[in-house]
Amino acid sequence: MKIAIYGYGNLGRGVECAAKQASDVELVGVFTRRAPETVKTLTGVPVYAASDILSHREDIDVLIICGGSATDLPEMTPALAEHFNVVDSFDTHARIPEHFVNVDKAAVASYHIALISCGWDPGMFSLNRLYANAILPDGKDYTFWGRGVSQGHSDAIRRIPGVADARQYTVPITAALDAVRSGTMPELTTREKHLRECYVVAEEGADLAAIEETIKTMPNYFADYDTTVTFISKEEMDKKHGELPHGGVVIRSGRTGLSSEHTHTIEYSLKLDSNPEFTASVLVAYARAINRMHKRGVTGCKTVFDVAPADLSPLTAEELRAHML
Amino acid sequence: MKIAIYGYGNLGRGVECAAKQASDVELVGVFTRRAPETVKTLTGVPVYAASDILSHREDIDVLIICGGSATDLPEMTPALAEHFNVVDSFDTHARIPEHFVNVDKAAVASYHIALISCGWDPGMFSLNRLYANAILPDGKDYTFWGRGVSQGHSDAIRRIPGVADARQYTVPITAALDAVRSGTMPELTTREKHLRECYVVAEEGADLAAIEETIKTMPNYFADYDTTVTFISKEEMDKKHGELPHGGVVIRSGRTGLSSEHTHTIEYSLKLDSNPEFTASVLVAYARAINRMHKRGVTGCKTVFDVAPADLSPLTAEELRAHML
Q: What is the mean pLDDT of residues B81-95?
């Protein structure tokens, strides 16, 4: 299977590494909106101008689009689905139905297949919500994120006057996790579920108290949470906060039995050293699946809900039954 | 969707309870090899003789076969797949390929669909092994079972002379779980992964030391494990060990990055108050899926690997994308 990467940031580099691990995947190129000669890939794979992509149509089975959800993907995915089988990681939950409709129209018209909103949330977490809800209809769902870096929250802090750099960690609260795991199905407020830890490098002479106050009272981002703000040096930021770890937990508790007398708890958890590399690994597995589905004649927009698990694996159906069932 | 139950033990009763929770499922009857008039169902659903089942062909969309894996299912599932869409929970891992071939032959010839080896292991644990392997090809798998009652091990103890009753709990060892969760990918022996806790009611005058020795040295079942044997009264057995809890954990750790510098851990865990009721809940969700697949013209033998997640849910594709993705 021949894949290509469209957009070469953290996620694109993650796809490049994941493709190297998959023996049935060949990465034919990276497409970038920057000047190609200024971009150097990790593995030496060739770099092309994004504007040249249509001349590579015959070389690419699946194009993995590594753009941002805010402005890139709503434009890119429908446009590229007119010419390629595509996978994206569109993660603005509220706008997924609208994105689906746009991508579906383009993919159906051109007989391509497109998989949107792939990764871990949306993605593997969504799958686990669906499986657990189908098995335990009488129950309650919980999702916790972290401990991990939230790039959106880090960016929000960086926009405050006097801030040179910032890193925000979302941290699930242990007492809440324990209560959920006990199967008692507690009602939890936003504040009871997660803490927000902020590490901030201030510009020289900045008013630290004002920065801290601005962070802690920022609506939507921090006001509804218990938030800690720690000022650190640029050296400490570079040394201790250079990675992008993340993860989280999806839990569903539910009851069964004639009088709902038995409780069950299903938990799926991820502990990730690198958020973009893990997301990229999910994208490559789903690229394999949609390539197979397209060969069987499937077209249009799909999500992880529509993909039979067997299509994700390089193993044959016989091998899967013998070794994984 | 109309379902029926074939075989009315713990699992059959679990299916009866699970069907009650599914608003789109109607349970039309229970089929038993016992005299039907001697069987009373929990919810008053009618009981029929197993030998009469062919006269109910038109009333049943999916038949859930609740027999044992050792001798019942290898005969029942292929025979019933000639006349019905069926689901079974065949769990003898080593014999799955052979069972698959037999069931596939019967289902293909009669244009039915059959789903075998459904439940949690095989079943949900298998799915999680597959997903995690597809995402993290460079890694290592671990499965822990328990804390829960192993019926096979309990039965093995009951066959020892002088034993009136017994209950065996399989217990994962915390130190091993912690080592696996740390992402260090340890090599673990059988003894390092699980303990076996045995509670035994002895017959009057039985040689307790001899019973304990026989248990602890029993090949395959106990000899490779650290095993504790506790003699208790019949009253304590009935009071404290009457339930069938179970569960377990599937973990995969894997590495990504240009030099495999990042480690990720994916964990799926189940904590079940009632093993048969949870298994039954999985069977009913998959009965929904194979009914839909059959309506789309799919025939032959399938496993959980072949079922797209969306088919398990009573929600529409639009609802799933809007609320679960």
A: 96
